């Protein structure tokens, strides 16, 4: 049956589709955080960003790049927050990679992405060096 987003791709449930190509599709979020809140997904089902093949990732970013200005202009937004909840512990509810484009407006009462991760850790320089090395060695 697939995820709810696969059902949208297959036309089995309705959605306000705003863009579609061979690999990706974008549609309005059913519970918008702001007017114009849009989701961009790969048509094929991948749970996390980590699962998306390189060629699909390239297409996905191209669609995001195209949609951000389109969404902002459509609702006369001042800015946008563009983000993925990547994994259940990060708040991902639908296990099908999706990018949120949330239009932002001066004085909208929202916050920056810095507020998402709970209490900030107090990391010493050597810990930061170790973390940087670990990431670099896997990049
Ligand atoms: P997540 O928490 O997984 O990052 O976000 C899932 C998003 O999908 C939510 O913002 C939710 O409102 C949206 N959503 C869930 N079900 C549907 C649906 O059937 N149609 C549309 N258009 N959006 C949905």
From TrEMBL:
Location of the active site: 98 (tele-amp-histidine intermediate)
InterPro entries xref list: Histidine_triad_HIT (IPR001310), HIT-like (IPR011146), HIT-like_sf (IPR036265)
Residue ranges of the motif Histidine triad motif: 96-100
A GO BP annotation: nucleotide metabolic process
UniProt GO molecular function: catalytic activity
Residue ranges annotated for the HIT domain, each copy included: 4-111
UniProt protein name: Histidine triad (HIT) protein
Species classification: Archaea, Methanobacteriati, Methanobacteriota, Stenosarchaea group, Halobacteria
